[in-house]
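cron nightly-structures :: item 1 of 1
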Amino acid sequence: MSHPPFVCRQIGDYQVTALSDGNMSASLDLLSGIDTSEAGIIQRDAGITEPGNIHINCYLIRGQGRTILVDTGTGGQTSASGLLREHLHAVGVTPEDIDTVLLTHAHPDHIGGLLDADGLPVYQHAQLYLHSLEGQYWQDDAMLKQASERGQRSFALARRTLEAYAANLQWLDDSEICAGVRPVWLPGHTPGHTGYRIDSGGKSLLIWGDIVHFPHIQSAQPGVSIAFDCDPVQAEKTRKQVMAQAVQEKLLIAGMHLGSQGFAYVLSAGAGFRIVCDTEH
């Protein structure tokens, strides 16, 4: 089976590869703070032919003797996703090779690939890292009771997954995970939503998780939130801060919903920002 070329960037000692898990359908109606027709125009102007599709990326980090995976995709919970395992195989990596899994947060399109069909850990040799506030949120019975039916399924998956990995679960603090790789707390989308920054060999990269779901829309208008945000006000504040930082530092970014390009830069554009593929920068 042929595979698409995988986009890689060398950040000092680390090679970072964007691995697509596929797509999930998400209507523009999920957005607030913008009219759906206006959102559609932004998508079309950006050349996006399926304006409601959200692409899912995971990232493989190799270097310093480590094989690290950032997020695990949906595990095939939608018909158009679940491609991560296949793409790992295509770059010569098996689940047994992964020594560390860094989670941005515990929504299903990020943790769905952690368990197999029997509910057993896929990455049996990996240490799993997650922010403690994220763990507290998904174990909170009061939050579970408030959740919609779909949300309750997400809680159930998060709880099953954390239980299955309990022996290998590490709660994040401000410490480096390994030389030059550290977590960056980016709250709002979820309480423990976390990015991962690599600083090595004079180069830097921020894998920013779900700062955006529709990158062209939410960069042009950072006040636009999505229904999946636990705290839209905090999410907007974090989004504006991290985008401004990316502009100021000329920081290479990666994100789970940036699209197949995998890596990008953020530019100032009027009252908002613009996300451009790093080859255009």
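cron nightly-structures :: done
The chain has eight helices and 15 strands.
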